[in-house]
Design goal:
By secondary structure, the chain is an all-alpha fold. It is built from 13 helices and two strands; from the N terminus they run H-H-H-H-H-H-E-E-H-H-H-H-H-H-H. Helix 2 packs antiparallel against helix 3, helix 3 packs parallel to helix 6 and helix 6 packs antiparallel against helix 7.
């Protein structure tokens, strides 16, 4: 009975996209931590509801022919809780409107408008390719770039833009580029294993991703290469090897190990809890550093 309640709660947390929204907030907090400025609760709320809304919107658009018999547990759960997902999408939208209007600068509003249009265009078929209507994600090899870009803008560039607007810190262009590039590489690296897992489904809908081009093994190696790039940029940003660098290196090492151990046979908890959870772990370790040192 306890086990059933535990897994039901875990399914709700993961498959309703609440967990990924929490991870997005954690990544926003990592940005504030590295900038050494206090986090803006309104920006974090925008990141949370924006991520929650966009992920649930994406799932509602990806309706399989027979969701009740889908191979992925996440798909079956979502479409057995269809009204809940729609309610969470509406709540996210209703929260984002006043937050965006009242607490974002003009630059922040334009940035989030651009990100929102990009994220929605990712799924909505508005382009024509070979006589078929497609969304941005169906353009060959662009899926990984779009996902990493959207996360980098939301969790790094938006906090930086608003921090500068509020005159809390003057951030150089070089530092901004390093922070954005770091997050881009990290998100891209943990996205590739998901694409490897979904390679069969992607082939059915003719979605050309990095694993479809390189194959499983080379795609995993590419992920490790991206993580290595993240570490190089982190050292360049900090200009030293301090405790922050060591702790973030630990999370990158764990991420690399999880990617190495991932395969299409792994259950969905491995991907949505462990791999995505690395985004949350980064912030938790930085919090521990702040508490004890």
């Amino acid at each position: 009975m306890v086990k059933k309640i535990l897994f039901s709660s875990l399914d709700f947390l993961l498959f309703s996209n609440l967990f990924i929204a929490i991870c997005a907030v954690a990544q926003g907090l990592v940005t504030y931590y590295l900038l050494h400025v206090p986090p803006d609760k309104y920006i974090l709320a925008i990141i949370f509801f924006g991520t929650l809304g966009l992920y649930n919107f994406s799932m509602l658009l990806s309706v399989p022919k027979d969701p009740a018999n889908a191979t992925l547990m996440r798909v079956r759960w979502i479409f057995s809780h269809h009204r809940l997902i729609i309610s969470m999408l509406l709540i996210s939208g209703l929260c984002l409107i006043p937050l965006g209007l009242l607490y974002l600068s003009i630059e922040g509003k334009l940035l989030m408008l651009f990100t929102g249009v990009l994220a929605i265009s990712y799924n909505i078929p508005f382009l024509t390719l070979n006589g078929q209507k497609i969304g941005l994600k169906n353009i060959p090899l662009i899926k990984l770039f779009l996902v990493a870009l959207i996360w980098s803008i939301s969790c790094v560039l938006l906090p930086i833009v608003e921090t500068e607007h509020n005159q809390l810190l003057n951030i150089s262009t070089g530092e901004t580029l390093l922070l954005v590039a770091m997050r881009f590489l990290f998100i891209a690296a943990i996205t590739i294993p998901f694409d490897v897992r979904d390679l069969f489904q992607h082939k059915i809908i003719a979605l050309k991703t990095i694993p479809a081009l390189l194959g499983d093994k080379k795609a995993f190696l590419f992920s490790q290469f991206l993580l290595g790039g993240y570490l190089v940029l982190l050292i360049l940003l900090q200009q030293t090897v301090n405790l922050e660098v060591i702790l973030l290196t630990i999370t990158i090492g764990l991420t690399g190990w999880l990617i190495y151990k991932s395969n299409p046979e792994r259950n969905e908890y491995y991907y949505f809890l462990y791999l995505d959870g690395m985004m949350l772990l980064q912030y938790l370790l930085l919090v521990l550093l702040h508490l004890f040192f």
